[in-house]
Batch of 3 targets.
Target 1
Amino acid sequence: MRFWEIDVRIGKGMLSIIICVFLVLSLSGCWNRRELDTFSILMGMGIDKAEELGKIQLTAQIVKPGDLKSEGGSDAKAYFTVQAIGDTVFDTVRNFTKETNRKIYLPHSQVLIFGRDIATEGVQKYTDFFVRDHETRLRTHVLVARGEAGKILDVESKLEKVPAVGISHLLKAQNATSEAIEVDLKQFICRLMSKTTAPIAPLIEISGEGEKETLRIPGIAVFKQDKLAGELTGGEARGLLWVIGEIKSGIIIIDCPSGEDKISMEIIRASSKVIPKIIDDQIYITVKIEEEGHIGDQECPDKLSLPDIKELEQKKASVIRSEVLASLEKAQKLNTDIFGFGEAVHQKYPKQWDDLEKRWDDVFPEIEVEILVDARVRRSGTLIESVSQ
């Protein structure tokens, strides 16, 4: 049935209504159009404890669209930061209007940073606003500052016009090389709502002074329920990424077979699987990790033979295993199930879980974990001789 024949079936009156609705929907305007120049567009927010007892201090980084478009030698900043103090997040966000004369607009926010004092005290009551507010961007990155969150937002980016965008790009770049983890607001809140899986977030701190001041991601913040419990750094942090399947790329440095000099192995792909078992009321976890990579560079004095390649694979597997073990030991010491072992047990043993969930704080630190690593060196097209030979 063609469009112009529709009146035969439903009548001319109904056809007129359909045409009117079609024309209204095709108009270029928007029923709920909001003039952005009447809002303060938020790019990043930091939450700290205020000096006044019982109050919080929010730092908002707000973009200036006019200066954002400017090119060339303009020294004008494309953003400004404002601070407000209040009793709750909602109350304090509303107080920003006293400083900006505009309502804060949340959908473009890139980062939400908790100051260390707030994280130590507990963050749950401060996340409630972001869950309830319909404008909140759930893809906003969540971080924990080593110090005050507000000071983090004061550090200018060397590459981006808006520091909050620079922080977002820093996280993405380091996540791509498995040096940091990206955690958005949705992921953070899901872990926060879990009765067993502990929340995590990347740490951020200021490095250097004056013109050399910059930001770095030194590790991962670990929470017990909603309170900061500790940190994972170095191999501990990457150990967590191996277990939860967040390894994207990266480099593993090992000794040459001769014991002299080093080889840099690039991670091409990696995957993991957590397998729980209950035997005689005892929980056992097996973590299987598969990794494949190739030689990034080598300083070895001798040509690498096939047995040498096998040895490199074993050494690489040993490094991965040690990183996972370091992460596991720290997590069990803090009694924080950052790996989601509890959820894995729940899915496989739903009947036993009701009892285990109540005792998980007693169970998790005592779980025996077997770490199996299959690390491969991709040989196809790989130069196995050093250029110096």
Note: The mean pLDDT is 87.
Target 2
Amino acid sequence: MMRDGIACTWILLMFLAQTCVAEWPQILGSNRDGHAIGKKLDPWTSPPAVKWRVRCGAGYAGVAVAGGNVLLWHREDDKECLDCLSSDDGSRKWRAVFPAVYRGGVDPDLGPRCVPVIDGEQVYVYGAAGDLQAVGLANGKTIWSRPLRSQYEADEGYFGAGSTPLVIGDQLVVAVGGEPNAGLIALNKGNGETRWTALEQEAAYSSPVPITLKNKTYVAAVMRLKTVIVDPTDGTVLTEFEFGRRGPTVNAATPLVDGSNLFVTAAYGVGCRMLDLAGGKPTDRWGQTDVISSQYVTPVRCGQWLFAITGREDYGNGELLCARWADGKEGWRQPEFGTAHLIAVGDRVLAQKISGELKLFAADGSSYQELASATLPTGKYRALPAFSEGVLYCRRIITPSQNELIAIRP
């Protein structure tokens, strides 16, 4: 028993060590919570300067940034391309190319959706068709490759594969949504071999996160119709609860963790749930359909306050909402704000609107206090932004097949 506890503590320490060193190495930053660690962003008094800009192909994948490298995952014609760019000037260091076989669904964009994952000397990318690649960070050479969705006969969903894999210890946990019993799978991150498979659940567009309960690290994953807590060592399900709705719906926001508390949200009449998992079984603390109902934007927590976009982009009813983390009580609401991705930077929140506006506001629960705003070059900005070393990386959609990555210094 003590040996198991030591092993789990070691896994957690290794995870924290990896995430604290890099700047924005994966989806939603170092800890998958939308926080730019150790950074401060002062209100700008003149339009933010464009540091550099690079044209690229299709896709909604945000970039990962670490060690002066910017990893850009996109599609050009019949190829999915992983470009390693210099954070200094955007020049390309190397390119890794893979066949692109995704033919599209509800959305005309055919590019990848998942943010690259930088882990030490390796980078992992998950393509729109569910093909997982591991490449060397130094040179872009392929280390291993797995066509997971075809191997496990997974449905491609409305928008292709869109759940960014999670590195935890020496494993890579992936929401595949396959059969039989392969909703979640774990791979040896070094060689790509399958360690375990678990769950009869379709994949969602939310990404799994680590959660520690009773000094043991688990994986929390929002699937198509359920949220599950699994043991990463063997895939055993600790607990699960209903979350989702049948029909033309998706679960896309990544869950937030605070100790034993887990927050999940979705649109389409699903709403949100705040649960306490301290006892191993989920206990609802609060949750309603009319408090926070996020279509795909992951909220950010700053102290006792939760900042979220509630509503749907396709309905044009996105609102910026502040609610108290402990009980969901509304602090304030900013109507007609629109859909925006949120990054917490110290005691401020940076919002990148899909429409191409930047807003900086105070992480204050008493009222909406806008500190600065700016307009980005014309286009749509659906990809997750990244914030590293004072630089904001935004991906602009020019046409369905052509994007542009813009590095901005607010």
Note: The first strand starts at residue 49 and ends at 56.
Target 3
Amino acid sequence: MNLSEIRPPKGQVKNKRRLGQGMGTGRGKFAGRGAKGAKSISGYSRMRGFEGGQMPLHRRLPKRGFSNAMFKTTYAIVNVATLNDLAGDSFDVQSLMAAGVIKKLEDGLKVLANGDITRAITVTAHHFSAAAKEKIEKAGGTVVVITPATRKPKEQ
């Protein structure tokens, strides 16, 4: 006996009921969906918040408040440990993008102090945390701060 020869016991597996195939299926002409209307058609899904044609609650209530999200600054972040692991001794935005360390530059590059650094490197970035700056300089490296370009608020 092989695993491929094993069959389920008789009566355990039922045949799938094919709905909407007419009177012979035992589910009738409309297959339990009723006559006409959107809900009788396949692929129907009501939109979120739909209230049967009545103006939905989320549209009846006024908009309120203000969000500062469009003014938020988002930095591309690199840790000191990552720079220590990379080949070379000079790092800037272009070299880090080429190495695949950062994907996109939002409002500038910020270097953080996570991890240790064991060699002297030169890092050019828009922002440094105080601890990162201290670690790089303690290892004999140099820190070059670029002034970030002014930017417009993001689109919502």
Note: The chain is about 15% helix and 15% strand.
